[in-house]
Structure formats: C-alpha cells, structure tokens
Amino acid sequence: MVEGPDAIGEIIVRGHNVMKGYYNRPEATAEVMRDGWFHTGDLARRDADGWLYVVDRTKDLIIRGGFNVYPREIEEVLLTHPAVSMAAVIGVPHDSHGEEVKACVVLTPEAELSQQDLISWCKQEMASYKYPRLIEFVDALPTNATGKILKRELRTGLRA
C-alpha cells in the first residue's frame, strides 16, 4: 500500500470487467492475478487531488545502489538536450550497485556530441544516483509496429 500524495506504487485493479487470465498461460496469469487483483505492471503516483499519473513500468524500473531510478524520467530529461533525437534508458548488471543506468541515444542529424559530454550534461541535470554512467550512441532504437521502443531487445542485443 502506497501512503501519501506523490508516493509511487503499482496500479492494481479488480472487478467483473477485468480479465480472468491469459489464455493457456497459467504461470503468466499467476504472476499478475493475486487474491483477485490484477497487477498491471504500471507504476503511478497519485496527487493530492486523487489524479493518477503513470510514471513507468515495473519491468523497466532500475534499482541502482538501493535507489529506484525510473527510466522514463531520465529519458524525458535526455530529450531536452538539443543533440538528442531519441533515447531509451535501461538497467545493466553492475557488480557493486546491482544495476547501472545506461542510455541508448540517437543523435539529431549533424550533431556532434561525445559520450563524456552527454554524461557531464546529465550530471548537471539529474540527481547523482540517476544520471547514466553508460551512454551508447545508436543509429536507431528497435521498435514494434506501433512505434514502441523494445527495451528487451536493448537489454539483450547491445553491449553493456
């Protein structure tokens, strides 16, 4: 249970209109259906007026040195840099921190920016536990037919 306004927690729902489970996938159903509640995997915060704001997905959450890092927040900041066209943030394994923050970045045409320059900029724009220590410049990010970035492909297909 999440306490107080602006605390972040997972959205869970139940009711007659909620699915009963995944077809022929009992293990997947058991993961999301618990005690009659459907765990959506969406992380949200509720403001003082009761409005919900989705902030990320539980699968994407990065835990770096005990701190929760929400990739969507980092991506939104990266996109404010004039040389950044697209960005996707993922967690990669790290020996002492558990996970490290890595940004996969597509630069705007004609942009010239080094990894260290972008890291230094991020350091000024974000909390010390949030900024990406690893930057990989890519020509394009993998997407599905609707344009959603496929982070699972970034986790398996790119170097750490």
Question: Which secondary structure elements does this structure contain, and how are they paired or packed?
Answer:
Blueprint: E1 8-13, H1 26-32, E2 33-34, E3 37-46, E4 52-57, E5 62-64, E6 67-69, H2 71-78, E7 84-94, E8 98-107, H3 115-125, E9 134-137, H4 151-157
Parallel strand pairs: 8-9
Antiparallel strand pairs: 1-3, 2-3, 3-4, 5-6, 7-8
What report would you give on this structure?
It is a single chain. The chain has two domains: 8-57, Luciferase, domain 3 (Roll), CATH 2.30.38.10; 62-157, GMP Synthetase, Chain A, domain 3 (2-Layer Sandwich), CATH 3.30.300. The protein is of the alpha+beta class. It contains four helices and nine strands, in the order E-H-E-E-E-E-E-H-E-E-H-E-H. The longest helix has 11 residues, at 115-125. The strands form three sheets. Strands 1, 2, 3 and 4 form a four-stranded antiparallel β-sheet that branches. Strands 7-8-9 form a three-stranded mixed β-sheet, sandwiched between helices.
> What is the residue-averaged pLDDT?
90
Q: What is the domain total for the residues? A: 2
Strand content: 25-35%
Radius of gyration: 18 Å
| Helix/strand structural class | alpha+beta
Helix content: 10-25%
Shape: globular
Q: Main β-sheet, in a few words?
A: 4 strands, antiparallel
Distance between the termini: 35 Å
What's the β-strand tally?
Answer: 9
CATH architecture of the largest domain: 2-Layer Sandwich
CATH domain fold name of the largest domain: GMP Synthetase, Chain A, domain 3
- What do we call the CATH homologous superfamily of the largest domain? ANL, C-terminal domain
- State the order of secondary-structure elements, H for helix, E for strand: EHEEEEEHEEHEH
CATH class of the largest domain reads Alpha Beta
